Amino acid sequence: MALHVGFSSGSRALPAVLVGTVVMALFVPMRWQGWVTALGGLTQTLVAPVSGPVTHLVRWVAPASPPRPADEHYASLEQENQQLRTQVFAQTQENQRLREQLAQLRVVVPSTHANVDYLPTQVVGASSDLAGQAIILRAGSRDGVQIGDTVTTDFVQVLGRVASVTPRTCTVLPITADKAEDFEAVILSTPSTMRCRLAPIGGGLLRGDLEDKRDAQSGKPLEPKVGDEVRLSDPTRWPASAQMLVIGTVQSIDQSPKQPLRKCVVVRPTVPDLSKVAEAVLRVAPGSARQASATGKEGNP
Description:
Layout: H1 2-27, H2 33-47, H3 51-61, H4 72-108, E1 117-126, E2 135-137, E3 150-153, E4 157-165, E5 170-174, E6 183-188, E7 194-202, E8 205-209, E9 229-232, E10 246-255, E11 263-268, E12 279-284, H5 288-299
């Protein structure tokens, strides 16, 4: 019982001690403020609530609940967002490809070639004729296709010419095939364009001797550069609508195997292997596809 009374008496005396300490701090000289400050810190530790340890103890006993996972609606929206982003990226690439094709078409299809019908089609197989390198397209005389028509890939890269036609299919020999005929081409180089006659050499490549063209001032022979663009320019054997279509780019410049004093170029088409394309575009005479199709329907119901 005495212990209880003593503790109560000490508790009632504690406020008086604190008040006295504060009053003494107001009148303590400067040289004594050091030990007074220490005494004040000790007093604050004894009387202030022990919030720090208590807080840590509470957090350890009852940790904060983890964030709730996204609900099904949010997950569905996120998945839809990712799908839309993928579609946008794909459309952006496709638009870029179409813009490049349109830019090329503005060069290779002048107004005099406007009367040409484009007939997209698929490759349906390989032909056993023409050394086994010919391909068969799903388009024939019923669609207005004729022997000699120009065939391209992506509208601008020359694939070859139609070698034979049936009512429903046609056979094309790529320009890089071993049995393909040589043809005239022009190299768009700077400062001057140069002509060459290209022939297949295997491996999907073409090679041809350069014309002897010299600089007007120095008299030195002009040469193209690796990467220069090569286009078809053979009006005597190819249709007018095929002129200035893309053949490829200059891969290397070497000494001519036929004339050591002349230079030759090796040209690689823009398509790695023309004999393995899946789609092609035929250039047919204007209106012939519609007329032939109508005639075929009347004669073959």
